[in-house]
Write a structure and sequence with these properties.
Elements lengths: L2 H13 L7 E3 L1 H8 L9 E5 L2 E8 L5 H17 L5 E8 L4 H9 L2 E5 L10 H4 L8 H13 L1 E3 H8 L3 H13 L4 E3 L2 E3 L4 H10 L6 E7 L4 H14 L4 E3 L1 H9 L7 E6 L4 H8 L7 E6 L10 E3 L2 E3 L2 H10 L5 H10 L4
Parallel strand pairs: 3-4, 4-5, 11-12
Antiparallel strand pairs: 1-2, 2-3, 6-8, 7-8, 9-12, 10-11, 13-14
Helix pairs in contact: 2-8, 6-7, 6-8, 7-8, 11-13, 11-14, 13-14
Length: 337
């Protein structure tokens, strides 16, 4: 935690008479422990000496709903893990009305009074997960959501073998960017355009391009087929992507004066020596250095080895406006691939 959230943690620890070494858990880590989807998220979780403190930070009015949600978390924890850490509920608030304060005390919920200068915990500084949606683990969740059209958070996690905590974090990031629509625990993407724009901004393919080589071939797909045959014989890691793979997946007609190729590290110069030519009439090969494992889940279409549908969609989106039509075509057929 950084900035004012760290200061908030220190303040609440002090008011609860906890040591400075008391463990601070993220809400996502708490979700991982519960292994259940809940429309609840405490703002702060502290743990010390066998006690788990679930803290709700309120700079506006404390409501009955605030109290009820915290009590639900406590009851669920006690039901699932009766022998584990005991739960203490805490509401940290600038003010609390008498009725809610009496109810909180009756339920043994501790009240921590906050200074009036306390910033709003719903501000982006508190809630932003700052999680990149294009990392390998995050993109598994995002691409699965595109494939399913809509899903529960837990089903996304299970189908992709990603922790619930991380999946929840990615969904929070998509929600903050207004990319998804949430109905309780069901989430869906109505319009993929904001997502695709976000990918282009976060992971532009031009940042991965390391070389551009002309090869002596009469056309893009002939070049891709010849390169596929040669590199397979040499057991070199490779995968065609972007327009080359997208056109093969979708059947979408695109201008093919270039091919787009991931090539393993160290193979670029040997590739240039083997395939490069001086003629200006050749086919252009755009070479990319992979930022993740793109070689373990390749497909074959028309004797060309191409990146997986998920990777191809990510890469097409990373080309931005220049590939937008093909990217949209890829989204339309993605569920069938």
């Amino acid at each position: 935690m950084k900035g004012s959230m760290a200061n908030m943690s220190d303040l609440i620890r002090s008011r609860l008479n906890l040591s400075s070494s008391a463990e601070v858990m993220t809400p996502e880590e708490l979700y991982e422990v519960f292994l259940i989807e809940l429309p609840l998220q405490p703002d702060l979780v502290l743990r010390e000496a066998g006690l788990l403190y679930l803290v709700e930070i309120k700079t506006n009015a404390v409501t009955i709903d605030t109290i009820a949600r915290l009590q639900l978390l406590k009851d669920l924890w006690n039901h699932r893990y009766p022998s584990n850490d005991k739960v203490r509920l805490v509401i940290a608030a600038k003010t609390i009305h008498q009725r809610e304060e009496r109810l909180a005390k009756e339920l043994d919920i501790e009240i921590v009074k906050l200074p009036w200068s306390t910033p709003n915990p719903n501000h982006r500084e508190y809630t932003s997960t700052k999680t990149r949606i294009t990392t390998p683990k995050s993109w598994k969740i995002v691409s699965r959501l595109l494939k399913e059209r809509g899903s529960s958070i837990r089903q996304l996690a299970l189908k992709e073998g990603v922790s619930y905590a991380w999946t929840h974090r990615v969904i929070q990031q998509l929600a903050e960017r207004n990319i998804i629509r949430k109905l309780d625990n069901f989430v869906q993407i109505d319009d993929p355009k904001p997502l695709l724009n976000g990918v282009a901004w976060e992971r532009p393919m031009k940042n991965l391009q390391v070389a551009e080589i002309l090869v002596d071939a009469p056309g893009a797909f002939v070049a891709a087929q010849e390169i596929t045959n040669a590199l397979r014989e040499q057991k070199i890691g490779f995968a065609f992507t972007c327009h080359t793979a997208g056109a093969l997946y979708t059947g979408y007609s695109v201008r093919q004066d270039s091919v787009y190729l991931y090539l393993e590290k160290g193979a670029i110069e040997p590739f240039r020596e083997q395939f490069g030519c001086d003629t200006s009439a050749g086919t252009r090969v755009r070479l990319y250095a992979p930022d993740r494992n793109v070689f373990s889940d390749t497909r074959e279409r028309e004797s060309v080895q191409i990146a997986s549908p998920s990777q191809t969609l990510l890469d097409l989106a990373g080309l931005g406006y220049s590939a937008m039509d093909l990217t949209r075509a890829m989204v339309e057929v993605y569920a069938t691939l």
